[in-house]
TrEMBL record:
It comes from Roseovarius lutimaris. (6R)-10-formyltetrahydrofolate binds at R66, N108. This is Phosphoribosylglycinamide formyltransferase. Pathway: Purine metabolism; IMP biosynthesis via de novo pathway; N(2)-formyl-N(1)-(5-phospho-D-ribosyl)glycinamide from N(1)-(5-phospho-D-ribosyl)glycinamide (10-formyl THF route): step 1/1. GO terms for cellular component: cytosol. N(1)-(5-phospho-beta-D-ribosyl)glycinamide binds at G13, S14, N15.
Length: 197
C-alpha cells in the first residue's frame, strides 16, 4: 500500500515538482495533497494542473496565533488520510504542537550542510564565512528548527565568483536529486542516510 504524502510549500514548488515526478511506478508513496499558506503560490496552480488535491491555509487571518493556524492545517489534512508530510519551501515555522504528532513521519529539505547554517540566508552566511563547499540536507522534522536526524546530504563546491544567488541555483539542482531519493527510501521504511558527492 503506497504512503499518502502531503507536500507543504509557500512558493513555486520546484522541490514539490521533483518529488511528484518521482512518485510514479513502483514508488512506495503517492502525492495525495499539496498545501500552502499562500493562495498565489505557483506550486498550487501547478499541482491543480496535475490533478493533485490542494488546500490553502492563509496564515495572515490568524494574526500570530500559530496554534490556531496549525490546528486548521491539521484539520485540512484529515480527509486525505495522510501518512507522510514533506516540507518543500514552506516558509512558516511549525511549533511542537504540530510537529510532535507527526514526528517520524515528516521530512524537510534545507539548503545547507546541517548542522551548519540553520534558519534563513544560508548561502550569504556560508559565503561570508569563507566556506569551500555548501550543499543541502534532508532531515526528519523535530520540534527544534532544522535539528532532526539527517537522512541525506549533497555537496556543492563554492566557486570564486559565487554570489548567494548563483550558489542557491546550484544547490537547488542538488535538492531536486536528493529529496526524491530520500523520500523513496524513507517511504519504504529505510532511514539509512544518503550522501551524494
Amino acid at each position: 500500500m503506497s504512503k499518502r504524502v502531503a507536500i507543504f510549500l509557500s512558493g513555486g514548488g520546484s522541490n514539490m515538482r521533483s518529488l511528484v515526478a518521482d512518485m510514479t511506478g513502483d514508488h512506495p508513496a503517492r502525492p495525495a495533497l499539496v498545501l500552502s499558506n499562500r493562495a498565489d503560490a505557483g506550486g498550487i496552480d501547478w499541482a491543480k494542473g496535475q490533478g493533485i488535491a490542494t488546500e490553502v491555509v492563509d496564515h495572515r487571518p490568524f494574526k500570530g496565533d500559530r496554534a490556531a493556524f496549525e490546528a486548521e492545517i491539521a484539520a485540512r489534512l484529515v480527509p486525505y488520510a495522510i501518512d507522510l508530510i514533506c516540507l518543500a519551501g514552506f516558509m512558516r515555522v511549525l511549533t511542537a504542537g504540530f510537529v510532535v504528532p507527526w514526528q517520524g513521519r515528516m521530512l524537510n529539505i534545507h539548503p545547507s550542510l546541517l548542522p551548519k547554517y540553520r534558519g534563513l540566508h544560508t548561502h550569504a552566511r556560508a559565503l561570508a564565512a569563507g566556506e569551500a563547499e555548501v550543499g543541502c540536507s534532508v532531515h526528519e522534522v523535530t520540534a527544534e528548527l532544522d535539528e532532526g536526524p539527517i537522512l541525506g546530504q549533497a555537496r556543492v563546491p563554492v566557486l570564486s565568483d559565487d554570489t548567494p544567488e548563483t550558489l542557491a541555483a546550484r544547490v537547488l539542482t542538488q535538492e531536486h536529486i536528493l529529496y526524491p531519493a530520500v523520500l523513496r527510501r524513507f517511504a519504504a521504511g529505510d532511514r539509512t542516510p544518503i550522501f551524494l558527492p
